[in-house]
Fold this sequence. Notes:
Blueprint: H1 2-18, H2 23-32, H3 37-61, H4 67-81, H5 84-88, H6 93-113, H7 126-142, H8 148-157, H9 163-188, H10 193-214, H11 219-242
Helix pairs in contact: 1-2, 1-3, 1-10, 2-3, 3-9, 3-10, 4-7, 4-9, 6-8, 6-11, 7-8, 7-9, 8-9
Amino acid sequence: MIELIFLGVGVGILSGFFGIGGGTILVPSLMLLGHQIKDAIGISVIQMVFSSVYGSYLNRKNKTLDVPMGLVIGTGGFIGALSSGFIVSNIDDKTLEIIFLSFAIFALSRLFFKTKVEKVEKNVNRVILFVIGIVLGVLGMIIGVGGSILLVPILVGFLHVDLKKAISSGLFFVVFSSISGLISHSLSREIDFQSGVVVGLASLIGVYAGIHFKDRVDMVLQKKLLLGFYLLIVMYLAKRIFF
């Protein structure tokens, strides 16, 4: 219980600071503590509901959240995530770990090669944003990361969205994908709700601190920290899978 509380606070800080649902660090951490990946994914989905809802409320309060764009992507994410639980039930653990690693590598590469922050945003068709939401909703909730691990690099790298705005949109997207994913996972298999709620409640403390730091840190430094964060995840997963 104590481990879960501390883990929840830490995940919450990362969630608020980097605009992720928390699963990117929570799933590997739970696996490190001895949980099987499918159990870790279930706990992560529950935690993401708590952190994303509270974090998005704080971002909205701080006026860093683009609600119209987030609603379009989020609606797509909700629809896509509905199938995630049934897909996970039919995939073996090793395959899930490889998919998780692939996600982290892609996110890292997009941020690494797009080091220049564009000042002018592209006008993107809402249909494209909706389709992106559907795809990320399915893929993200399969491995319990909400989808923002890919959404933030896509918004920054391809659509030239401001990093802080992209991070806020990424966390808002997780609200939709995590709620939908929780419904899907609950219907398809058993989830450890007790552990998920403990981690979720503890994460609220961390989310508040993470968002507080996010809005006060220089954008260049924030991007370097995000790169380092993804790099650590990739190294850990590669070691777990191949060595």
